[in-house]
Design brief:
This protein has 5 helices and 7 strands, in the order E-H-E-E-E-H-E-H-H-E-H-E. The protein is α/β, with parallel strands linked by helices. The protein has one domain: 3-Layer(aba) Sandwich (Rossmann fold). A 7-stranded mixed sheet has the order 3-2-1-4-5-7-6. Helix 2 links the parallel strand 4 and strand 5. The longest helix has 11 residues. It is globular, with a radius of gyration of 28 Å.
């Protein structure tokens, strides 16, 4: 990912786990709490960032750790430049990991408010003016041959997490030409008088 600004919203794991990859001029982490590697503190649904200034935005399970996922995505759309990219990591709600979240007091991983399916997130991004360009699924290691692993991966609950990369659409407005013109004004002295016919 290239450009001037790369912003990670939400600390997840090692502070340098993701920031070393984008080839942007500046990179920063924003989180709701101060911590190692956090550049500034803010709520993900209300970023102190000017509109259309960020080239790449990374949400590592951020929408799952907030109670307002739609507002987070709308804020992401606001700060991204045209053709900017957003990367979202999420957990599969119908996976074993998703079921464990429901059975674990306090959620699993801790702090998770909800999980969003890959299809639903794709719909949300599309409504906000994004086109998904990359879709990846992540599976737990399974012992056995390739055929067993391939069959298991056909099941909807087999993958535990996913990644979506989407690009912000740019709408080009083309001005319409005038389809009509007002009739030119003609001076009265140039108007020809109608001729009269003689009746016999």
């Amino acid at each position: 990912m290239f450009g001037a600004q790369f912003l990670q919203i939400g600390a997840w794991g090692d502070p340098e786990a993701f920031l070393g990859y984008p080839a942007t001029a500046r990179r920063a982490i924003c989180d709701s709490e101060a911590g190692p590697g956090v550049g500034f503190v803010a709520r993900p649904e209300r970023l102190p960032v000017s509109g259309q200034t960020v080239d790449g935005l990374f949400l590592p399970h951020t929408i799952e750790l907030t109670r307002h996922p739609h507002e987070v995505l709308r804020e992401a759309e606001r700060v991204l430049v045209g053709v900017g990219r957003i990367i979202v990591l999420g957990f599969n709600p119908v996976s074993i990991l998703g079921i464990r979240r429901l059975l674990t007091r306090g959620g699993f991983p801790p702090g998770l408010n909800q999980t969003v399916s890959q299809r639903r997130l794709t719909d949300w991004l599309s409504l906000l003016g994004f086109d998904v360009t990359v879709s990846r699924r992540y599976f737990a290691a399974v012992s056995g041959g390739d055929s067993i692993r391939d069959r298991l991966r056909q099941l909807p609950f087999s993958y535990g997490a996913y990644m979506l990369v989407a690009i912000k659409r740019v709408h080009i407005v083309t001005p319409l030409r005038k389809l009509w013109r007002h009739p030119a004004k003609v001076s009265a002295r140039h108007v020809v008088e109608p001729s009269t016919r003689n009746r016999h």
